[in-house]
Amino acid sequence: MDTKGILIAGVGGQGILLASDILCRVMMAADLDVKKSEVHGMAQRGGCVTSHVRYGQKVYSPIARKNDVDILVSFEKMDTLRYLDFLKPEGTIIINTEELYPPAVNLGDAVYPEDIIESVRQLFGIVKVVDATGLAVRAGNIRAVNTVLLGTLSSCLPLPLELWETVLRNAFSPKLLEANLKAFQLGRAV
Amino acid sequence: MKELLSGNEAIARGAYECGVRFAAGYPGTPSTEIMEAFATYKGVYAEWAPNEKVAMEVGIGAALAGARAMVVMKHVGVNVAADPLFTVSYTGISGALVVVSADDPSLHSSQNEQDNRNYAKFMKIPMLEPSDSQEAKEFIKLAFEISERFDTPVFLRSTTRVSHSKSVVTLEAPKTMEDRTAIRFDAEKYVMVPMNARKRRVEVEKRMRLLEAFAESFPENRMEINDPEVGIITAGMPYHYAKDVFPNYSYMKLGMVHPLPVGLIREFASRVRKLYALEELDPFIEEQVRALGIEVTGKAIFPYTSEFDPGIVERAIIGHDKILRTLPERQLPLRPPNLCPGCPHRGLFYVLGRLKVFISGDIGCYTLAFMKPLEGLHSCICMGASIGMAHGMSKALGEKGRGKVVGVIGDSTFLHSGITPLLNMAYNHSDALIVICDNLTTAMTGMQEHPATGFTLQGEKTMGVDLAKLVRALGIKSVRLVDPYDLKKTRTVLKEELAKPGPSVVISRRACVLFKREKLSPGKPLRIDPEKCTGCMLCLGLGCPPIAWKKLVDPSGDQKKEGKKQQGIAVIDLNICSGCGLCQQLCKSGAIVEQM
Fold it and tell me: Which residues on adjacent β-strands are paired with residue B136?
C-alpha cells in the first residue's frame, strides 16, 4: 500500500490536534505505520492550524507535498480554500460550514468570501458539507465538532467501525464519552 | 509495546529508559514538552531553571558529581548557555552530559532561525541528529553513551518538525543505573585557569580525533546504496522528505552531524555519479564535503532559509513539482495569531500604544501587541533585551527621551534575564520606565512554572519571589502595581511614572486568561445593544477577537454622529467573549452590556 495522506485544517482552539491524534491511533490499531505533524506555539493564538496525517506500510515524511493529499478535512469554511492545492485531483473534501472571521474581516478591511462551497464543488468531485457545530449541539456537546468531523472522515476510509469506537472509548473520559460517540455517529451518517 | 510519541516525548522517554534521572531546562518552543514529559517519570529529578545558562550550569554540576544529566533548551537558549558550554567542552565531565538543542527552521515560534550545528563545530562538541521519534528515543541513549565514553558533553539536535511530529515508537523497559555520584576532587581538570585550560585545550583536540575515528564506525551513519545515479548526503527530517519522493536514490544518512565521517563520505561519493548535500538552513555538511575536494551540489539548488518539505526537495532536484494541475489563485484574509479574548496584556498595550512613547519589547505573548490595532510595541530582539535597550535609548536621547521610553517584559522573561539590566538602570541613573507584564506564569509556552509562581516543575510547593520587593532590592525606588483590566487607572499610573525623573517600574498584574490554576473567570460575555451603538469603532481599537464590525446595508438617515451617517455597528461573538469588560470601559454611549 502506498502512503496515503489526510490533511486536517482549521483555526486554533477547534480541537484539530486531538482529532488527528485519534485518527493516528485508529491507524495504529489497524496495524499501519503512521506519522503526523503539526506546529504548536504561535499558531494556537487564533492562527491557522494544520495537521498532516500520513499512513501506509512504511511512512517516511510526516507532511505531504502539493497534489498528494487524499482527504482534506476542513474545520473552517473559508480555510478550505487555503489548502486545496495539497489535494490530489481525485481527492475528497470534508467541509465544516462554521465561519470564523479573521481580524481583517472583523475590522471591515476584508470580506469573508460567499461562494466557497460552490467554487470547491467546481474543482473537486467528492465534497461533503457538514454542519458540525449543529450536529455537535445535537449530540449534547458543542465542543464535539472535531468528533463529528472524524465521524464523517470515517465514512470515507475503509476501516472497521469497531476500531474507531475502541479508540474513541480510550480517548474520552466517561463524562464526555456518550456525547462524543453520538457526535461521531451523526458525523458518520452525513 | 508501541506508542505514538512526538519527537519531544520520545527524547524524554529515551532518557528515562537509559537511566537518566536528572534534567534541567528553560521552556521554549519547540523544546518545552521534553522537560514536561521527563518530569512525569517516576524517580527522576527535573527542574525549570530561571534561564538556560543556569540550567546548563546545574547540568554541569550534576555531571561533575557523576550523574547522567540532560539539559534542554530551544536553539536561541544555547546562546544564553554558550558561556559555560564553550568551557565545559575543555573540562569534560565525570558522569555524562547531553544538551538538547531544539532548532526552529521557518521561525514558527522564534526570533531567528540560527543553525545550531555550527555550535557543535565551534565548541568542539559532538552532535547527533535524529530524524523521527524512534530515532529521537534511540539517539538520546547513544548521546549519553558517547558522553561517558569520550568524557565530553554531547549535543542532541532536534528541529521543530522532529520535535512536534508524532510517529510510532517501540517502548522498552527503563534501565536502573547504579548510583555513581560522589564528591571527586580533580582541580587540574576542572579549574579553568590558563595553566590548566591550556592542557585541557590539547585534550579537546585529542578527543576530536578519537571522535572522528568513532564516526566512521558509528552505526547510525549509514549508507543505503540503491540507484548509483544519484546519492544524497543528509540528516534529520530532510532524509524522510527525500525518501518520500525519491525512494530509489542512494543515501548517506548521518546520525552524527559533528564530527563527520570523512572516510564514509569519500566512499559514498565514489559509489554514486551525482552527489547532493540535502540540509535545511546552513551548508554545514556541504562545505565540509567540498573541503574534501568532492564535487557536491547543495545550496545551489536547495534554499538557505526555512524548513523544507517533500515538494521543495522534489522541485530542487528534478526542476519542478509533480504538478498535476494548477488551481485558480485566490487572495484570502490572513489569520495572524492574536492575543486571546480576555488577555490581560490587551488593556496594558491599548494604553501604552496611545501614549506616543517608544516601547522596547521582549519575548512573550505580548510581543503580538506590535500589530494593528494595538501597535504598542516597537522592538523585540531577545530574552531580557527590553530593559537594557530602553535604558540605552533613554541615555542616548537625553532630554528628548525624557518620559518617552518604556521597556516591557513578562514575569518569566524578567526572571530569565531582566534582573541584571534593571540593576544596571538603577546603578547608572536611568530615566526609562519598565513595565513588568506579570500574568503569573510562563504563558507563551503553555503555563510553565518559574521562581515567582510558588511551584516547581514537578509540582512541589516552593517560595515565590515577590517581584515588587525584588525590584526595590535592585535599587528602583518607584514601584507601582496596576490591574491592566482597569484602563483609566493603568493610564494614570503610567503617565505619572513617565513624568517622574529616574527609573521606575510598574507591575501590571493579572493572571493569563488561559491559566486554569488561577481560575479567574472575569465575567459574563457581553453584547452590544444595536440601538445604542453609534458606530464609533472605539471598541475595535482593542483588536479583541470577538468584536466585529457589521456594515449597515442601508445606513439610516436619523442615526448621525458628527454629522455623518452611521456606517455600521459593532457586534460581539458571545461564544468567545470572556467578559473582561475593556470594551465596556471604552464605549462612550453605554452600548456594551451583559448578555440578557
Answer: none
